[in-house]
Design goal:
Length: 238
């Protein structure tokens, strides 16, 4: 019984040590994890205990095993709660990666009939049309296309979105009462492909969200993620 308890505690310790080094950035994507026999010697445990810990890390998506080459740290995947409005800078930083924001274009213009699928306003109403790219670890992470209703959020016209992402500003400044998510798998547009440094037609995940308050629609945002690096998680209870 003592041997079983020891193996269990070593399994937890190995799991925590390796996971901690990955999440802290000490072991970046592509880093080779020590071989099983090396970990067995380091922790003074059975190879089965090491294998169990590494298998759990594979299940969590933190490492991948390559035949005859060993185990390597994977590029982190983002897991988003389907019904949660999250802040992209915090999302990236939680992965242990450096965050950078790039404003691609911003235009104050009148609402057009062609905007109706995104925001339901009156033609001629003032809106901000913003496109930007969020970076993680120096690589394109998410392409953002956003419309902001200036009638509902007039202060947005005076914000320097060259420095601050519009989503972060809106979350911190503008109360909302309802939101709608739409999630689709798409082949990327040329505009998104250029921003994300992808080949046109690459599979991507698109999350579209509208938020509104009692004063009407606040914003619509379309977030395009490279499909292989993003997944959605729903936690349910009876």
């Amino acid at each position: 019984m003592q041997g079983i308890a020891k193996d269990k505690s070593l399994h937890v310790r190995i799991l925590g040590d390796v996971e901690g080094r990955i999440l802290s950035g000490e072991w970046p994507p592509g880093h080779r994890i020590p071989f099983e026999h090396e970990l067995t010697e380091q922790y003074g445990c059975s190879r089965m205990t090491v294998n169990k810990a590494l298998s759990e890390l594979v299940t969590r998506g933190l490492i991948e095993r390559r035949r005859r080459s060993g185990s390597f740290v994977t590029r982190p995947q983002v897991q988003s709660l389907v019904m949660k409005i999250h802040d992209i800078p915090r999302e990236v930083q939680a992965l242990g990666l450096d965050y950078e924001y790039r404003l691609l274009s911003i235009e104050r213009r009148p609402y057009r009939q062609s905007d109706r699928p995104r925001l339901d306003l009156v033609p001629g109403d003032p809106i901000l049309d913003i496109t930007s790219c969020h970076m993680a670890g120096g690589l394109p992470f998410c392409f953002e296309e956003r419309l902001i209703n200036l009638a509902a959020v007039p202060d947005a016209a005076d914000v320097d979105f060259l420095i601050q992402p519009p989503g972060s500003w809106l979350l911190g400044q503008v109360p909302w009462s309802a939101a709608e998510h739409r999630i689709r798998a798409v082949t990327t547009t040329k505009r998104a492909a250029d921003a994300l440094d992808l080949a046109p037609g690459t599979a991507c995940l698109v999350i579209e969200r509208r938020t509104w308050s009692n004063d009407g629609h606040i914003t619509h945002v379309r977030l395009t993620y490279p499909g292989e690096r993003h997944e959605l998680v729903a936690q349910l209870s009876p």
